[in-house]
Amino acid sequence: MSHAATPRRYFLETWGCQMNELDSQRMAGQLMQLGILPTKRPEEADVILLNSCSVREKAEQKVYSSLGRYRRFKQDRPSMLIGLCGCVAQQEGERALRRVAELDFVLGPARVGELTELIARRRQGERLVATGFPAQTDYAFDNISRDGIYKGMVTIIEGCNKRCTFCIVPQTRGPERCRSLAEILAEVRHLVAFGFLEIELLGQTVNHWREPDGERDFADLLDAVARVPGVERLRFVTSYPRDFTPRMVEMVGRHPNICPYLHLPVQSGSDSVLRRMARGYTVDDYRRLAAALRDARPDLALSTDIIVGFPGETEDDFQETMELLRELQFSSVFAFKYSPRPGTAAPRLGGDVALEVADRRLQKLLGEQQEIQRRLNRELEGEVFDVLVTGWGRQPATQSGRTPCHRIVHFPVEGAGTTLGQVLPIVIERGNPNSLMGRPAPG
Ligand code: SAH
Ligand code: F3S
Q: 384-440 adopts what CATH topology?
């Protein structure tokens, strides 16, 4: 009897935004084509990939502490390869190889498609750094190991040309590059053909998409994707407030399969802070946009990002942010303490906010936002939503899913439950600050 060869394994850890999530799926796809399968145990892996985020200092520290842990596994498995990927890889380049002797290669976010080649070259002895932003890159979308079966992520625009003074992303993800309409539609059709119900268009400034060498903008793209038969839910992240045109608002109102959920980072409720962030809009501009969107889609849930403790933020500035939260009633808020990043302009602005002050503001904001969400979610009690079933709950015999407005719903099930990726009408029985509890609607 012959022994089956032990399959080779990869372990992949991912931090950060949806773009990183998708990059991880692209890397996993390449490894699986080489016959290397996933494992949850880094110590038994042949390839370890760390897909890092550098948007705040804490995120960056996390990758180095993981690296510190995994490098020790190499003592028992000298053939193990460890690769640093993602935004820290782009940022650190050669420096990472010098700093960590056990590191085999460094792979920047714009070079994800070259993983297979990098592994082959490493096996021949080279320690490599693949960073930077080549003009031409291959994007093999049929080779992505999609996570789950209900949501397919489609990059439409890579990089960012804005210069928000706090943000490191333009350095780590490079200048803006738009994919062609034909390529985007081909990927959407491919996903729908494989049974994906939900399409999520991705970009750092997703609504700044323009057709390369063409006339069409994001409103045309939304229109085209929403019309693809089989696209049941269409979402896009992240929109830049200033880039939202009236035609885009109109599309959000026109197509029922565009989800009534929008992530629209405001960052601050104070004009003077927004100016120093170089965001290019005022609080009033943002208010008007939010109102136009809610006019177009009365059921729209709006979420946002807020930075507290930005250099020069006064108590009055912060109070303006709090007032904006009360006024706009966001369905969720991602709030962060400002973190100075290398190569950005904000650290030179002066007016540093003491850590305790920033901490207190963050806690105050999060506390009050919880109450807002509790109230908003209670108002949904008794309503019926079409819930896309996405997983099993922590409690036995429960499942969870998402409403069209992207709220998480938990509900009890009988027997084998509902197949993941199906849509089920659920009546909401209780609204908590961060989730809804319901049960299958009778009948
Ligand atoms: N283009 C995307 C991604 C930006 S990073 C967008 O507009 O959402 C995601 C969020 O992280 C930002 O919206 C901002 O709120 C936060 N962020 C970015 N840089 C930061 C920094 N230096 N300190 C604290 N939060 C930051
Ligand atoms: Fe960052 Fe501003 Fe671009 S937050 S990703 S520089 S839009």
A: OB fold (Dihydrolipoamide Acetyltransferase, E2P) (2.40.50)
Select from 20, 55, 205 the residue to mutate for testing ligand 2; criterion: most ligand atoms less than 8 Å from CB. 205
CB-CB contact of 208 with 240 (8 Å)? yes
Cis peptide bond upstream of 238, omega within 30: yes
1: tokens are 């009897």
Q: How many beta carbons lie within 10 A of that of residue 376, not counting itself?
A: 17
In CATH, what number does 3-130 get? 3.40.50.12160
In tens, the pLDDT along 244-278 reads: 999 999 999 999 999 999 999 999 999 999 999 99
Cα separation, 10 vs 46, in Å, equals 6
What pLDDT digit, counting tens, does each position of 44-80 carry? Answer: 999 999 999 999 999 999 999 999 999 999 999 999 9
Write the pLDDT tens digit of every residue in 377-393: 999 999 999 999 999 98
**8 A C-beta contact, residue 154 and residue 188:** yes
**Atom number, ligand 1, closest to the C-alpha of residue 265:** 13
- In total, the chain counts a number of residues equal to 443
| Nearest Cα residue to 11 out of 61, 74, 60, 53 | 74
Residues with CB under 6 Å of ligand 1 are 55-56, 160, 166-167, 169, 204-205, 238, 265, 267, 305, 307, 336, 338-339, 341
Alpha-helix residue ranges (DSSP H) falling in 354-417: 355-378
Spatial neighbors of 414 by CB under 8 A, at least 6 apart, are: 397
Q: Which atom of ligand 1 is nearest to the CA of 337?
A: 24
Ranges of each domain in the chain: 3-130, 141-378, 384-440
